User: What shape does this take?
Amino acid sequence: MNVKKTLLLIAAGLSFAGEVFGAVEIKESDGAITICNSRASLALSRSDFSLRQIRDRIRREDYVKEPGGPLFLIALWDPKHPGKELNIPNWFNTTVDIVVDAQKATSFEYSKEIKDGKAVLTLKYRGIPVRTQTGLVDVTVMVSLADGSGLFEWGLSMSNATSLQLYEVHFPVLQGLASGIPGSETNDYVAVSSYCGGEKKPLPRSMGEIGQGGGEYPGIGVQLLSYCDGLGGALYFASHDPAAYRKTFIYQPCASKKAFQWYVIHYADQPGVGAWKLPYSVFCGPIQGDWYDAAKLYKRMFADKAWKSLSERTDVAPWFRDLSVWFQGYAFNGEKIGEGDSKDGMKEFSDKMVKLRDMLGEDYGFHWYLWQKYARHDYRYPDYLPASPGFKEAVEKLEKAGVHAMPYVNIRQFETSLPMWRDEHAENFAIRNIKGELDTSTTIKGVEHFADRDEKKLMGNMCFGASYWPNKVVDIERQVLGDYGVSALYLDELAGYPSFCYATNHKHPCHGGTYFAAGENKILRDIRALQEWGGKPPVIVGENTSEAYINYCDGLLNGHSDMRPDSLPIFHIVHSNHTTEIGTLVVGTESHDLDIFLSKLGFNLVRGRQLGWLNIYLEMLTPEFSKQLVKLREFCNVRRAGQEFLFFGEHLRTPVLDALPKVERKWEVGPCFGKVSYALPVVLGECYRAPNGEIGLILVNHTDKTHTAKIPWNTKDWGIAVGTKISRQDYGNGQWSKPISQAMADNLTVTVPAYTPMIVKIISDK
Assistant: This one.
């Protein structure tokens, strides 16, 4: 190897022939301790360990505009005398007013070590006094950096000699962040994971009236934030925690409105006395790129190691793998039907659903609401059984015809006026607030729901850490499977708000811990193991997108949550090959307009989701909807033909389609937002990589005119270099074209006929 070339590679911190360059070091100068390699550096004050600078040494970009401030905030409390009232859930605000002040430590000591290509800096805060207490608190922070990595790994442990209990820890608190590159102040944003998908939050230095943002995990999809300067640089901020501890991600502007801070709130198990150690690592550091590159880094470093790909799993039901479309609804003409609806009504409904199956020529899934005996939504849970008269016969008929029935069950709520609430002493297993009372907080925070708006019957949330409730949910599903023979089960509110619980009679620590996700995963695991599946592979679908449940859950419904075409597919970029997403709600009024109908189906298809979630199954039987039915069948065919990409594949960066004209589409995007107009390119498109390395572009023309797209080829993210000999095949009109050999050009030219979905498959000949 050329010596001069070797030196250049070392200076750039790059890889060559399997070797990683960019050795780490820890330097001391100008009152600072700096841990660095050729990619990144982190500088801390030697006197109090406050943050001085985070630098991207490749782009020569500094990310700390306002240095200073402690690296952590620790809150203690006295359960007997908590002071001002604690609001639970606390929604980003630490209400405990006994805070350990890191800067009042008696001494600040540090040590450094470089071993096996990794530098470790250990910071020790000795003898921190706490008001009115005789004992002291010691805190140790560890920050490390590996050769060739740009990410700093953070850990924290503490010893609490006071009589107070640990409540929560904010760590690492990185203050004064913002890019210093000119122009970033108007282009920067924070990319956040949400309960479905993700969002760009612009101008984090000021944030307008928002004040602060973030998300509760395991409610949000992934444990990741990224700050993007909008000019090619970014900061990565994530916890890598496969056990799904309860935590909150926060970002908020500094007082100057010229920078922001971010941190993670870690909730301690109660009682929090003595020693405590953060049970997972938090990573932060500069990367080259944007939110997409941050998501891919999270995938490589963490997600691909924690979850199996769908191509590796052996428990995926073939019918679910091959399924293209979901309808949703109920068998009655309205919700308030009451107990004992006639069998004739159920028979009439099932006959129509079988007719729809014959007209579509395609098996489909039916997400079934109001199958239970009361035929009411959000009413008398969990008193579901026996089912409405005729349900069993209807399911049998549908399953024989190729319609897969999936009944709704809510896995959180219990109506407190039910006799079984009293008879089974269910109140003992409900979530309790910090005062020990049955929690009746606001609806928005997910703790209470009125079963009937007229009667105001209260539903309490149940605790997954109390064995009674997981066992009850599993038993309900056992009876549903055994008595009614459905194909799949839907668990509503699976990935909802991760509530705190302070009940002392439950088998979980109060406040922090993993009991929330562990309890839900136990439910999923036990349901998968039920003998009542009768030898069929289980299929379980949950609500919203969260990685915490995808080991035991086959699909995640975000059809009523992530309905915006401008959302960031952060979850899908990370987990497209680990789980399946389902649907975007298409309401009846939208289906009358072929342009809107196909734009929503197109969004579903290119985003890799099983199609649907359609509540227009009866309208589809009428001649007025014949075009919609034909096109739906065509979309189903394309999804199945592209299964290697859309079911098993890895979602790659979105193709650049800016050169195409745009059209306005007004979409229903959920109950909270109503209809919103979007300017969409006439051809929607996304790119995927199959497990065998083939690249597939999924394209949908949702207009009545043919369009030709010239798509710039993205070698960096799609992995085939321009000039490489390739084979190209197109799928449309129900068949694949003959392979054409050619050199990969700078632009991929594709002509997409009106109202048509298609696939372009690229196979490298290398």
Summary: The first strand starts at residue 15 and ends at 16. The chain has three domains: 24-306, 318-557, 650-764. Residues 24-306 form a domain with the Beta-galactosidase; Chain A, domain 5 fold (CATH 2.70.98.10). Confidence is low (pLDDT under 50) at residues 1-21, 87-94, 334-340, 441-454.
